[in-house]
Amino acid sequence: MMKYKLSALFLMLGTFIYAQQITCSPKDKSLFEIKISDLEKTKASNLGDTIVLVGQSFLGTPYVEKTLEIGDTETLVVNFGGLDCTTFVENVLAFGLMLKNQQRDFENFTNNLETVRYRNGSLNGYPSRLHYFTEWIRNNEQKGLIKEITSELGGVEITKPINFMGTHRNLYPFLASDENFEAMLAVEKEIAKEELCYLPKDQIKSKEHLIKSGDILALATSIKGLDVTHTGIAIHQPDGRLHLLHASSKNGEVEISELPLADYLKNIKSNIGIIVARPILLPF
User: Which of 5, 36, 193, 210 is deepest in the core (most CB within 10 A)?
Assistant: First the structure.
């Protein structure tokens, strides 16, 4: 039985909406079955390698923006046909949890995805989604899924207002609702109380040996009101350097960066460094 009641099942543009809570197309449901079967056959010696293997299983998946902005009510969107940088990481963690806990049912996956994507693991409207990645990291650390290690790497702390959504309301259709808008302003106010810790970009090359394959990397930014502009998964390559496994908007698909991370970031003027979180995936 699905986590949510199936009595309200609708077919809308080829997409099933389960009790107005889970949105998933028949194609994505089939892709889930194929992916979990394939992943169960993989072998990894540690959790980091497991995360990398799951991430690599998405290589070539198209980059698609705003896949979660569907309809006029927040639902748990399952979409394997198109990923942005955040949904890529969320799907990888959800499957990583399945492998770690020897789960294989779609209900297990949706439970895991909801746990990762929403504040305190519970979908309760648009504002409950972890829109800002620094809050995403903190909240998933509280759940026991990851551990932020930026400070251990020599990260520096800054105080920065985080209010991009509140100051760019027109960019977010769900914020047309005054209720959602006021709730997000309250979320931003809480996030702003926390200092932002990042490893400066000029220190990444000298510290990359301390970052493990499978670690989650977030690109901290100087853009006003924003904490992070991009995220992905650390992967050490045969060249002996640390690269980024990510859903690339520039190249339009999930890929491994051609350049080592430290060199890749040199081309992003607004980047100030990275935030690093290590998956531990304790049961939630």
Answer: 36
Q: What is the pLDDT of residue 221?
A: 98
Q: Is 11 helix (H, G, I), strand (E, B) or coil?
A: strand
Terminal CA-CA length for the chain: 20
For every residue of 54-80, DSSP letters joined together read: HHHTTTTPBB-S-TT--SSS--EEE-S
- CATH 2.30.260.10 for domain 145-279: yes
The CATH number given to 9-138 is 1.10.3670.10
Q: Are 203 and 261 in contact (CB under 8 A)?
A: no
| Location of each CATH 2.30.260.10 domain in the chain | 145-279
What distance lies between CA 165 and its chain's CA centroid? 18
pLDDT tens-digit map of 105-128:
999 999 999 999 999 999 999 999
* Contact of 107 with 114, CB cutoff 8 Å: no
**In the numeric block, which tokens belong to residue 217?**
């990397």
Q: Of the candidates 231, 223, 221, which has an alpha carbon nearest to the alpha carbon of residue 200?
A: 221
Mind listing the pLDDT tens digit for each residue in 125-135? 999 999 999 99
Q: Measure Cα distances from 133 to 147, 206, 236 in Å.
A: 14, 25, 23
